[in-house]
Design a protein that fits this description.
Blueprint: H1 8-14, E1 25-26, H2 56-62, E2 76-82, E3 86-92, E4 101-108, H3 109-116, E5 121-127, E6 141-146, E7 149-155, H4 162-170, E8 177-181, E9 199-212, E10 215-220, E11 241-247
Parallel strand pairs: 5-11
Antiparallel strand pairs: 1-9, 2-3, 2-9, 3-4, 5-6, 6-7, 8-9, 9-10, 10-11
Amino acid sequence: MPSFIDGPSLRSLLRPSTNGRRSKVSDSGGGGGGGGGGGGGIFKMFKLMPMLSSGCKMVALLGRHNRALLADHATTVTLFGHRRGRVSLAIHEDTRAPPVFLIELPMLTSALHKEISSGVVKLALESDTRSARRRLVEEYVWAVYCNGRKAGYSIRRKEASDDERHVLRLLRGVSMGAGVLPAAPEKDGGVPAGPDGELTYVRARVERVVGSKDSEAFYMINPSEGGVRGDSNGDGSAPELSIFLVRMK
């Protein structure tokens, strides 16, 4: 069976709208924090990563709130992981609730950082399994591609690990941004503090586009201008982060 990377499923999600309408779009609103797009957005913050540790206390304080600081139920995407560990992907319809999709990707966080340095990251997840009773985000086994290159296979998590819960708790009040988080205490199952224990994250508000019951796409919203779907800064450039979920028929 050919991969959807070379097929019409992905191309249909990438094709720009000609009449201003999209199929089942979940509007996520504008964005708080994090800088502009087009090379000046969230990914640019990774160049300042050595200086971002000073923001850990602020993020930790935000995480203590009982309610998230988001004014609406924005769809958000979070990529996070220890510098020398694997990166995890979480998709939230509401950051006050557990993620609707959580998976540990078959790639190191350091490898993701290299892709981020290019300015554009496109993650494509392909599932060969099919169940009439499952939503697309409920499929378990996924082939993962990053910027067109196959990274391997992953299995969706039914429940977050202690370390993942620690990260998501700290970020409950964060709508958009990138930085370094304090590691979870060892007694709570976290990795010891230090070079291996540093947690980096990218969180972005996204526009969710449902092509069909077998295909969905998530396009990062420019925090300053709200650009989406292949026009992150109004000049025709691609959004910094795009994520595609496709189930093969």
